[in-house]
UniProtKB/TrEMBL annotation:
Species lineage: Bacteria, Pseudomonadati, Pseudomonadota, Alphaproteobacteria, Hyphomicrobiales
Gene3D superfamilies per record: 3.30.390.30, FAD/NAD(P)-binding domain (3.50.50.60)
UniProt protein name: Dihydrolipoyl dehydrogenase
Keywords tagged on the record: Disulfide bond, FAD, Flavoprotein, NAD, Nucleotide-binding, Oxidoreductase, Redox-active center
Residues that span the membrane, as ranges: none
Family designation: Belongs to the class-I pyridine nucleotide-disulfide oxidoreductase family.
Enzyme Commission identifier(s): 1.8.1.4
Amino acid sequence: MRYDLVVIGTGPGGYVCAIRAAQLGLKTAVVEKRATQGGTCLNVGCIPSKALLHASEMFAAAAHDLPALGVKVGKPELDWAAMGKHRDDTVAANVNGVAYLFKKNKVDAFHGLGTIKGPGIVEVAKEDGSVETIETTSIVIATGSEVSTLPGMPVDEKTVVSSTGALVLSEVPKRMIVIGAGVIGLELGSVYRRLGAEVEVVEYLDRILPGLDGEVAKTFHRMLEKQGFAFHLGQKVSKVEPTNAGASVTFAPVAGGEERRLDADVVLVATGRRPNTDGLGLEAAGVATERGRVVIDDHFQTNVPGIYAIGDVVRGLMLAHKAEDEGVAVAEILAGQAGHVNYGVIPAVVYTMPEIASVGATEEELKTAGIPYTAGKFPYTANGRARAMRHTEGFVKVLAHAETDRVLGVHIIAAGAGELIQECSVLMEFGGSAEDLARTCHAHPTMSEAVKEAAMAVDKRAIHV
Ligand code: NAI
């Protein structure tokens, strides 16, 4: 068996890369150690969490929002098993979809742990103990990332859980402590808060959602408190221990001070992820890594010719769509085309309620870089559609270069922000200005009019505020 390309790992980076390569005529195979395709994102990440986020949002809306719209449904009852079935059905449809796409595109799928034996040779250790060797011209490492736990926080996936265990809890906990106020902590914390759990978040930094625009994060912090979240910021966790009723978390102020201990039924450790290179044989193959990440050049090639890497295992944001775009780019490069990723325009979305979506630079980044900018802001309280839907929380902020008017960043906190941000990405991809956005006719009444108005506000000419 000889292939043009073998992709190791079939998460969003790997499977998209394999399909694009096959489209371009490369004889392609994938190696995946999980029983199903789709990696963390489809099996135990983005997809199941969005199924639970949507279902729990509907549960909360039935209790709190529908009566005000004149829809009486009585006190909603949780059917946790049915919600779990929705999560599992969603995952199954997605992972089976990838398997179907492999067949359709004639991508051969090998199941087992892939190890690079040298340039052009991948060994697959199968579950039945047998080993198969595949020969190939190129190899793309797309092995993603895994939960990075900290010493003193032993995860058993029952009472002390990572994001993986948090998706399949046997019941909704009465009390949940989340360690880390990042994306995973706030998304999964939201699921259980909406279903009735008391949720307390312990965070090392003195803010939530590091990396996001400061004003957005501050606004969201207040919104989450209104939803019943409790935060302990600037706190260093020293240990997590199992107790009779669940687990306890001990922490103290980073700046020094007295230690505190909180007890809960479930503790979610959401303190980040690390690149997954276990068993890949990188050292033996001579592939260089830096702080755990595979080092690549501008064309995704490692220091070993013929071995490439993309996604969470390399530098940059650990986001599924960044990995997908890298997968397409490297496939095109291997097929002799000019694959390319614009890292300046990678949107990021936090799928909470309201959602947070951003693309481009934050105000803090522009200030640090000394780039002169003008901010245009528009609140959802002034948007007709938002009022009709009772989704008036939040705002849009457009940041444009003070001299050229080119849009440098957009930050949205609002219901449906994840969809609203995409027009801003397209605008930025084409190097558009705030005026371009402001002069583009937006349908009325839509939530997207707030994006247009924020662009108008850059020039201090918003109509509705
Ligand atoms: P994260 O890096 O977003 O947040 C981790 C948080 O934990 C940070 O605020 C950090 O300061 C805090 N922290 C670290 N050590 C701590 C300690 N000992 N005590 C208290 N706090 C501590 O990581 P997270 O949420 O685990 O997500 C992992 C990756 O997955 C991220 O790269 C994220 O972008 C990605 N992801 C993206 C999603 C999305 O785009 N919607 C959804 C879920 C994950």
